[in-house]
Predict the structure.
Amino acid sequence: MGLRSARWYSGEDDRNSYIHRAWMRRGLPESAFGGDRPHIAIANTASDLTPCNAHLDEVAESVAHGVWAAGGVPLDLPVVSLGETNLRPTAMLWRNLAAMATEEMLRANPIDGVVLLGGCDKTIPSLLMAASSVDLPALVVPGGPMLTGHFRGVPLACGTDVWRLSEEVRAGTLSREAFLRSETSMVRSRGHCNTMGTASTMACMAEALGMTIPGTAGTPAPDSRLLERSHAAGELAVELVRRERRPSQVMTRGAFLNAIVTLAAIGGSTNAVIHLLAIAGRLGVPLDLDDFDRAGAGVPLLADLQPAGRHLMDDLYRAGGLLALLREVEDLLDPAPVTVTGRPLTAYLAEAEIWDDGVIRRRAEPLLPDAGIAVLRGNLAPRGAVIKPAAASPELLRHRGRAVVFDGVEDLRARLDAPGLDVDETSVLVLRGCGPKGYPGMPEVGNLPLPAKLLAKGVRDMVRVSDARMSGTAYGTVVLHVAPEAAAGGPLARVRTGDPIVLDVAARRIDVDLPDGELAARDPVMTGHARPARGWERLYVDHVTQADRGADLDFLAGSGGDAVGRDSH
Ligand code: FES
Ligand code: MG
């Protein structure tokens, strides 16, 4: 069959093959180097500093058993791991670094295929970007969500309840002491955030793209069925190599459009827009912002999950899981794209059933009839911006208000709660200098908190506009990913406090209502940091693309394939 790894190991009288074999032996049987056993890397993002992925070593063990069982050779490959809660200034600053490092290690090593183990927000995107660029046979095992914790008898939603409870403290309706006591209840078990945040969303995206064994996404991390699935994934990885089924054959344009339909139906994170654009960019699949609006249009919201709804990820799994949900929108899915199993995703839907239609709504009774992410344009965002209507207040989707402009998060923190801040509930809060180049790294600060004096009045949502992202666990009427960002000279840099801002989601517009030319005539306020002096940040700022192109590095677009031209000794 001509395995790629055999190019390292198979030369009989060759000094280099001797070196490759001798150093890898360490108890492996001779047959491991016979040239007919696929060598499968297990790209593992387990790390104590990525607490959501800390359990992946156990998952990796089950994958390895599956690889052995199918006649392959499993090889542990620890890769850069990004923990959403710990990394400063934002984990997003290193998504492309993790993707690049993983891509290079997959290509440089004697492997034939790879099983990708991720969980926390940036880990599955970076792994899929890497696998796309190398295009070796690959599949994903998502690490799974945690079980739901409770506080005072009420389920706690990861992330979402941190935002909600901390705003209650600021509003004076919850004591600080009670807030702090909820802390040990927030994370009940191994696994990633239990809301339909970015981690849960990207696990569902991996499945909708065809890159998991269908039915795996959303399996709770502590559930023994996850280990069973992991074993099966190891076996399948060996078969993928034998059949030469590569990511580029699975993640076709049709698969991306299926992912966009899925994103709307689950009420998934706006971050998926950026990640899917970046993955498509690696594969050379044509995909742009307008595809999200078009393919997501008219897709009903069926998952009653926080932050858009009420329940949490283990409820979704109990209720039938992603496949049961997708069965309701089967007519909107392209049946052509095949998954890693060789069968189309839609072939798995007939057996899926909804067991609790309070969690997974029937098509006839959706939470929202039209849940697709809306792509806005206008003189404030010539290259686009996004809003998630499912997480917004319906009455604010059409709104006109005075801008209150903040130059970066430090300015926001310094002035937001000042009693003298000239702001009311009709104002539009504008935050700039927080895009890919400006922060740098495009942090999740777009759901900026509301001024304390308005919270005290009972205001719980306002229109907000920024070049930042927001956490997938957050909610509100927030216009995100404004492109070009202020630090790239976008119109956001020319807006001033007091300007009238007009949001019209139905018309897909975000504008500042000023006479033509007035905005352009102003000097831009170039907030954000100076060009970094060295290192990754320097490379990142010099090469990162805008949000409408996935915020990848410009020179990482396209696939490099798996070929390595030269030997090492
Ligand atoms: Fe890791 Fe939310 S912090 S998934
Ligand atoms: Mg996040």
